[in-house]
Write a structure and sequence with these properties.
The complex is a heterotrimer of chains A (417), B (326) and C (323).
Chain A (H helix, E strand, L loop, with lengths): L2 E4 L9 E7 L6 E2 L4 E6 L4 E5 L4 E6 L6 E3 L3 E6 L22 H5 L32 H10 L17 H10 L11 H5 L8 H15 L2 E9 L1 H18 L5 H15 L5 E3 L4 E3 L5 E3 L1 E3 L2 E3 L2 E2 L7 H16 L5 H4 L4 E5 L18 E5 L3 E7 L2 E15 L5 H16 L7
Parallel strand pairs in A: 12-16, 16-17
Antiparallel strand pairs in A: 1-8, 2-4, 2-7, 3-6, 4-5, 6-8, 9-19, 10-11, 12-15, 13-14, 17-19, 18-19
Chain B lengths: L2 E3 H15 L3 E5 L15 H9 E3 L4 H13 L3 E6 L9 H8 L2 H4 L9 E6 L14 H5 L5 E3 L4 H13 L4 E6 L6 E3 L13 E4 L4 E5 L2 H14 L5 E5 L2 E3 L3 H11 L2 E8 L4 H12 L9 E5 L8 H7 L3 H12 L3
Parallel strand pairs in B: 2-3, 2-4, 4-5, 5-7, 6-7, 10-11, 10-13, 13-14
Antiparallel strand pairs in B: 1-8, 6-12, 9-11
Chain C lengths: L5 H26 L14 H8 L7 E3 L5 H6 L4 H8 L33 H14 L6 E6 L6 H12 L4 E7 L2 E2 L2 E2 L12 H5 L3 E5 L3 H16 L5 E6 L17 H9 L3 H11 L5 H24 L17
Parallel strand pairs in C: 1-2, 2-3, 3-7, 6-7
Antiparallel strand pairs in C: 4-5
Chain lengths: 417, 326, 323
């Protein structure tokens, strides 16, 4: 008896899926549970397993086709079985129908050309459509909170049950973290795999911040000569004793966190009808990745040593670029630092990472002519600016913060270790 | 802190409360000269006399009814049922009279009485002297049910029970009587309705009563070596129940195991499981587990008895089952 | 020998009338659908409650039965609170939570009617113990029926009372039927009072249709108890004039045939004749008593009807003194 393979329904909101790539061709042998094709929803890329062993007798839809959930896309069976009752769905798929995700993508979704480090390793033990997925209530709750689609996870609990730890591990590994509600919550921004939909979310978030948050912007030129001297003086010790190469940006993150701690007026956020003073200083670090922008978070940054900051910022940036960031690494930021110095930018105005209330922009550190004691001298400076939500942060506290940070960076009083 | 036996803690509580309040008196079978079948009233006859330490006929419903009648006219009796099994012959007085009087009378009734009894297996007492019947009484609105697991709790809670204006069914454990525990010299009244976290942990919550508390603590200690961190909570009072302490723990650990010496079906643990399933549903990472006596009368044979009654290893197995990974 | 004085005699007569009229009106109201639940009428047995309670003060205690209205009225409970309770009103003796079978007032020494046959017997023993502890010369009286004399609670309760010489009196109202079961088919003894011997206490049979006889026997037992000589078992031979409950015609088990000869001994009629003969009462006195009782009762019924029902939240109060 031939077994049909329908387009799986991976979430309550999923109505249709796009066939990305057939990994098996018609007539090829497949084993039960073997990955047979890749599909894409507006939220996630997903490997579909064969529901049965046998031959892939027929594919009913082609790559790029958009197929409603539940509609058969392939037939698995024994050689010579009559499969005439399974009609091709390709013809039924309206040609002009393009998924929202595809539309939002500037380029066609990347089809994994090599099987190597597949970013969707943990897949459901059973094809999603074949029955109930066993996940504990706690796992479901945490998945909801972190925006993880637990249906795509493999459970480690008794009987293969997905438990809380599995969801957290998935979030930490940045794997199939598909926000269930794309437009809501900070988690949604964090689509951490190269997915369709991420760009769209970024667009929405930027528009929302830009249009809803009245900003106050200010800039200061900061003399980094002393800081560079400190770094130079400590470089050897840091490398030998702590095993880290501390960058200027690390030092800026380090001091920014401390300046935020000292000026809590910029560490606030607005909820529906309350101004919340944030307790922790969690510094978001804007990282450019192929698909857009990600802002992983260094939690409790004001409490961390320079080597810890250095290590963590590097690891986060690498994970972000590798698409391996977990949602927990993307949540909880209270203040963001965006440094475009590496691109040679002198100064710029960053958009506030709502619901945070302020963001720091850091330009390139370079030698500039400045006046010292009546003389023009060459000093290494950078333009550092703050954009703050003026509903919550008045000009003076914002300026005070900037002044504090400037003072710290210009006169690094203690070895920041 | 000095250490005394659980049964000595009971005697101290009775002694102190009798000294404090002349309306407190004791009645029960063999409690006077004999000092109680489990020696929980030793010395009190000598101190307070036969009027206030009253041997009764072997008449359990007579004992409870008499206690109730005296409470209704203003006394604070402490009635002893030698074995909780014998409550079955006093059920009308306990369930239909003691528990109901206040309500039936529209609130105008003095029902300050304590029914002390003991249950549990472990001495080859067989089917009519070793049961754990606490659920019967928790099921009856109008009764408070206390089940102390340590000498300190036994003393502090018995004092609270005697002072309480409601009927309190106070269940001791025959094996705990000879366990020694720290009890402060100074007066301590432990409020009814307050659980105690006997051990903190993060992976799993064990709610245990009476003798299972000690077994659970031993299990938790052993599991610690495997890297499993168990929180052990003793509700101490089964009703009124300190739900918040239990729920807070379950929300923290995501796993709940309930253990009692009573048989599983319709046991008190079922109530806790239902409560947690409702009020901590979104925090549960595993099905709620119960480690209880097998569903049989308590057998006489020591070999069979220890097979039927849950022990430390059963708790450990229960915990492992909940944490097992594929 | 306790002699019946005119004052006590008139109190007993009026009390019997009060009980009778309460029961008659309750039956009417019940049959009119005004009262929920069910009723066990005390009609025919009034001489027992009145004759015994004539000796009691509010500090003496009684326990009663499912057929308890008569005892409660004799113990001094008022029509208003009793009717309000039958109407399940918040102003009832039990705030509408007890009903006919649980009317009680601790302040008046009425430790409750009781829905469990024999349930009140050990409680009365305990009340007697408590009273003795408090050093007061009060007594506890337990009313119960012939059916209850076969309950374990009876044996346990009176044995404890006898053993401890408690100031208690046990009054068995032997009305010949344990619900529907004739006495001869549920016990072999002719006189339940004989059982007293087994517990080491006096047992006395008295004519439960004769208020004066009840008064005298109860008076001795109560005096004995007050003096610390221990309890007495009184068996009052009597008869309920109606079925086990309102609606039971009594035809299924021979009650209807049995009751005829007892009706001729209606204590309210016979005692009135005695009192008239003694010139302690005349017809106009009797009419006045009935009229007063009727007036008071109709006012109480109106009070009950107009009383509020309990609030829903009241269902959850009075379960515990505090939780």
């Amino acid at each position: 008896m031939a077994t049909p393979l329908p387009m799986p329904k991976l979430g309550l909101t999923m109505e249709e899926g796009t066939i990305l790539k057939w990994r098996k061709g018609e007539g090829e042998a497949v084993e039960k549970g073997e990955i047979i094709l890749d599909i894409q929803t507006d939220k996630v890329e997903y490997e579909v397993e064969s529901p049965d062993g046998g031959l892939l007798l027929k594919t009913l839809a082609g790559e790029g086709d958009v197929v409603p959930c539940g509609t058969d896309i392939a037939v698995i069976g024994e050689e010579g079985e009559n499969i005439s009752s399974f009609a091709s769905t390709s013809a039924k798929a309206p040609v002009e129908t393009v998924s929202e995700a595809a539309e939002a993508l500037p380029t066609p979704p990347p089809a994994p050309s090599t099987p190597a480090p597949a970013p969707v390793a943990p897949v459901a033990a059973q094809p999603a459509h074949t029955g109930r997925i066993f996940a504990s209530p706690a796992a479901r709750r945490v998945a909801r909170e972190l925006g993880i689609d637990f249906r795509t996870l493999k459970g480690s609990g008794p009987g293969g049950r997905i438990v809380q730890a599995d969801v957290r591990a998935a979030a930490a590994s940045g794997l199939p973290s598909a926000p269930l509600a794309a437009a809501s919550g900070p988690a949604a921004v964090a689509g951490s795999t190269p997915l369709a939909g991420v760009r769209k979310i970024i667009a929405e978030r930027m528009l929302s911040s830009w249009s809803q948050v009245p900003r106050i912007t200010m800039q200061a030129e900061v003399d980094l000569t002393n800081l560079l001297a400190v770094r130079e003086a400590s470089r050897q010790a840091w490398e030998n004793d702590l095993g880290v190469k501390v960058s200027i940006n690390d030092l800026i993150l380090f001091y920014t966190a401390r300046a935020v701690r000292r000026c809590p007026a910029v560490n606030v956020r607005l909820t529906e009808n309350a101004l919340e003073q944030m307790q922790d200083v969690n510094i978001g670090v804007a990282v450019a990745v192929d698909q857009g922008l990600m802002v992983p978070v260094i939690r409790g940054a004001d409490q961390k040593s320079i080597d810890a900051i250095s290590r963590e910022s590097r690891a986060l940036a690498e994970a972000a670029r590798a698409g391996a960031l977990g949602l927990d690494a993307l949540e909880g930021g209270t203040f963001t630092v965006s440094n475009l110095g590496a691109y040679g930018v002198d100064h710029f105005s960053a958009i506030i990472n709502h619901p945070e209330s302020a963001i720091l922009s850091v330009g390139a550190a370079r030698e500039r002519a400045v006046v010292r004691n009546g003389e023009v001298v060459a000093r290494t400076t950078a333009f550092v600016g703050i954009n703050a939500d003026h509903r919550l942060v008045d000009g003076a506290p914002a300026a005070e913060f900037l002044g504090t940070l400037k003072e710290m960076l210009e006169h690094p009083k203690v070895m920041p270790a | 802190m000095r250490e005394i036996l659980y049964r000595e803690a009971i005697i101290e509580a009775l002694d102190e409360e009798m000294a404090r309040d002349g309306s407190v008196f004791l009645l029960g079978e063999d409690i006077a000269e004999f000092g109680g079948s489990y020696k929980t009233t030793v010395g009190l006859l000598e101190k307070y006399g036969a009027e206030r330490v009253r041997n009764t006929p072997i008449s359990e419903q007579g004992i409870i009814g008499t206690a109730l009648g005296s409470a209704l006219v203003g006394m604070r009796p402490v009635a002893e049922l030698m074995y909780i099994d014998f409550s079955a012959v006093a059920m009308d007085q306990i369930v239909n009279q003691v528990a109901k009087v206040r309500y039936m009378f529209g609130g105008k009734a003095n029902t300050s009485l304590v029914i002390r009894t003991q249950g549990g297996a472990g001495r080859s007492s067989a089917a009519q002297h070793a049961q754990s019947l606490e659920a019967w009484f928790v099921h009856v609105p109008g009764l408070k049910v206390v089940m102390p697991s340590s000498a300190r709790d036994a003393k502090g809670l018995l004092k609270a029970a005697i002072r309480d204006d409601d009927p309190v069914f106070f269940i001791e454990h025959k094996l705990l009587y000879l366990e020694r525990g720290a009890v402060p010299e100074e007066e301590e009244v432990i409020p009814i309705g307050v659980a105690e976290v006997k051990r903190e942990g993060s992976d799993l919550t064990i709610v245990a009563t009476s003798s299972m508390v000690g077994k659970s603590l031993a299990a938790a200690k052993e599991l610690e070596n495997e890297g499993v961190s168990c929180e052990v909570i003793d509700p101490r009072t089964l009703f009124p129940l300190d739900t918040e302490t239990i729920l807070a723990s379950v929300r923290k650990t995501g796993r709940l195991l309930i253990t009692h010496e009573a048989v599983q079906r319709c046991g008190w643990g079922a109530e806790i499981a239902a409560m947690a399933a409702k009020d901590a549903f979104d925090y549960l990472d595993a099905p709620i587990e119960r480690v209880c006596a097998k569903e049989t009368p308590v057998p006489f044979s020591p070999k069979l008895e220890s097979y039927v009654i849950p022990d430390k290893d059963d708790v450990i197995a229960g915990v492992r089952g909940m944490l097992e990974t594929v | 020998m306790i002699r019946l004085t005119k004052v006590k005699a008139l109190w007993i007569y009026e009390t019997m009338v009060r009980i009778r009229r309460f029961e008659e009106r309750s039956i009417e109201l019940f049959q009119a659908g005004e009262l929920p639940g069910f009723l066990h009428a005390y009609i025919g047995e009034e001489a027992v409650a009145a004759g015994v309670c004539a000796h009691l003060t509010p500090k003496d205690q009684i326990t009663s039965t499912h057929r308890g209205h008569g005892h409660m009225i004799a113990k001094g409970l008022q029509y208003e609170g009793m009717f309000a309770e039958l109407y399940a009103r918040a102003t009832g003796y039990c705030k509408g939570k007890g009903g006919s079978m649980h009317i009680a007032d601790q302040d008046l020494g009425a430790l409750g009617a009781n829905g469990i046959v024999g349930g009140g017997i050990p409680i009365a023993a305990g009340a007697a113990l408590g009273l003795r502890f408090k050093g007061e010369k009060h007594v506890a009286v337990s009313f119960f029926g012939d059916g209850a004399s076969n309950e374990g609670a009876f044996h346990e309760g009176i044995n404890i009372a006898a053993t401890w010489k408690l100031p208690a009196v046990f009054v068995c109202e032997n009305n010949g039927f344990a619900e529907s079961t004739p006495r001869a088919t549920h016990q072999a003894v002719q006189d339940i009072a004989d059982r007293a011997k087994a517990y080491g206490m006096p047992g006395i049979v008295v004519d439960g249709m004769d208020p004066q006889a009840v008064y005298e026997v109860a008076g001795e037992a109560i005096a004995r108890a007050r003096k610390g000589r221990g309890p007495t078992l009184i068996e009052a031979k009597t008869m309920r004039f109606l079925g086990h409950y309102v609606g039971d015609p009594g035809t299924a088990y021979g009650h209807d045939k049995e009751v005829g000869k007892w009706l001729k001994r209606d204590p309210i009629i016979t005692f009135a004749e005695v009192l008239v003969k003694k010139k302690w009462l005349n017809k106009s006195n009797i009419d006045a008593i009935h009229a007063n009782v009727n007036n008071e009762m109709e006012e109480a019924i109106e009070f009950a009807r107009k009383s509020p029902e309990p609030e829903l939240g009241d269902a959850m109060t009075d379960i515990y003194a505090s939780v």
